[in-house]
TrEMBL record:
It is a single-pass membrane protein. The chain crosses the membrane at residues 20-41. Residues 17-209 form the Ancillary SecYEG translocon subunit/Cell division coordinator CpoB TPR domain. GO terms for molecular function: protein-containing complex binding. Its main location: membrane. Keywords: Cell membrane, Chaperone, Membrane, Transmembrane, Transmembrane helix. Pfam families: TPR_21 (PF09976). It is found in: Cell membrane; Membrane. This is Tetratricopeptide repeat protein. It comes from Variovorax beijingensis.
Length: 230
């Protein structure tokens, strides 16, 4: 009986050795890769958290710089943000915030540079659209009409389409292109919808462009009910 058990154990041992000789290296590599992926994932998560914390701290510095109105400091801190954390939402927000402060301080060139960077580099399409709209407005103030229109070319998120149309209408009106302005204001008015407060401003612009907004409202026809048979 003992001999039989010894033979069974030896056979199982031989099978195990054969299995390990055949698949042992593969199993080892799979285990090592899985362990490496786990370590790498944890390391990546730590890196991302650490990076986000650093970006947030630098954004706070941008915010303090804009509040103090120190133009040189604003540009220096924004430069650090762009260099170290360009792909973060904090950098995009910092670019918009810095551009506003620089514009208010009369540094139009630096403001436009900051907005241009956000418009080109922002990962979030919403931030990109905001930067394009604001940059187009500044270029309009400078009478750089063609450059302003270029900023508004291309696709934007659907919710920004009426605002882009409205800004295009402003540019065309400044150029004296009334027909083009009317077309863009119509798009803006229709796209904003009746619940939008901004639509009232577009109505004033339509009137100035020679269009009665009431003429754009859909006509609701009521079909009279058929007379009942007595």
């Amino acid at each position: 009986m003992a001999t039989h058990l010894d033979l069974d154990e030896q056979e199982q041992l031989d099978q195990l050795k054969h299995f390990w000789n055949t698949y042992g290296t593969l199993i080892t590599w799979v285990v090592l890769l899985a362990a490496g992926a786990f370590v790498a994932w944890n390391g990546w998560q730590y890196f991302q958290r650490n990076k986000a914390a650093q970006a947030a701290a630098l954004y706070d510095e941008v915010e303090r710089s804009t509040q103090s109105g120190d133009v040189e400091r604003i540009q220096r801190v924004l430069g650090d943000m762009k260099e170290r954390f360009a792909g973060t939402a904090y950098a995009q927000q910092a670019g918009l915030l810095a551009a506003k402060a620089l514009y208010e301080k009369g540094n139009r060139e630096a403001s436009q540079a900051a907005l241009g960077w956000v418009a080109q580099s922002a990962v979030d399409p919403g931030y990109k659209a905001v930067a394009k709209l604001r940059l187009a407005a500044e270029l309009l103030d400078n009478k750089s009409y063609d450059d302003a229109l270029k900023q508004l070319s291309g696709d934007v998120p659907k919710e920004f389409e009426p605002l882009v149309a409205d800004r295009k209408g402003d540019i065309y009106m400044a150029q004296g292109k009334r027909a083009e302005a009317q077309a863009e204001y119509r798009k803006a008015w229709t796209g904003l919808g009746p619940a939008s407060d901004y639509r009232r401003l577009v109505e004033f612009k339509l009137n100035a462009a020679g269009v009665d907004p009431k003429s754009l409202a859909p006509v609701i026809t009521v079909t009279p009910a058929a007379p009942k048979n007595s």
